[in-house]
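Q: You know discrete backbone vocabularies at least as well as I do. I have my own habits and do not want them to colour yours. No explanation is needed for now; the record alone will do.
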Amino acid sequence: MLGTLTTSTVLTIILVYAILNAIKSTALINRKYLPLLGTIIGMIVGLVIGYFNAPTHTVEDIVLGALSGSNSTWLDQVIKKFLGEDLFDDKK
């Protein structure tokens, strides 16, 4: 159970991160709403993934999806800090 839980959580984070980057590149929504949108998309993705893993744990899947969606925003910030211009800026 723990292995499935970990796998589905990491998969949810990656999927929500990819969806948010696609939305961000199209400029369909204001960027200040992306964390909220990530949480909502995470809930939906968590529900879908959880349905195929263990359909009896619906509420847990929605909550874990929401947390994973929120963590995708954190992942975006970590990637920006380590791979962004701040790390390789020679002007410092």
About this structure: Confidence is low (pLDDT under 50) at residues 86-92. The two ends are 48 Å apart (CA to CA).
